[in-house]
protein-tyrosine-phosphatase
Amino acid sequence: MFANVLIVCHANVCRSPAAEMLFKSKQRAAAPIAFHSAGLRAMNGHGMDPVMQRLLAERGVASGIHYSRRLDRQLVRAADLVLVTERAQVSAVEALDPASRGKVYPLGKWEDDSDVADPHGGAETAYRESLVLIEHLVMGWLKKIC
């Protein structure tokens, strides 16, 4: 069983925090897992993208207070499982910590390794499409890890 799951995207203001909040809101109480997020190129301390935050709220998912943080080796090593929003990010995480091989997977692993497009700064329709996909992928992972 996994106790600590880390979700990674580029800036940690949109996709990975959305996945983190969805994991937290949808997990079974009987199998509590700590979900966290970080970004490969994040600037520490930025808030969550307001469009994504609003769309989560429309789904009844509280996003709470989120501050972006840059991925580092310590975060990777503390995680039992690392999920990335794009396939190419697997190698970036493994380059940061070679010992992470075997615990880094695309969020879309169970869906033909689907990448989650980054909607940040785009049209609201792009945000909605990404959020629908993220929610679908989160539910798939929860069936596997809980």
The chain has one domain: 4-145. The domain at 4-145 is CATH 3.40.50.2300 (Rossmann fold).
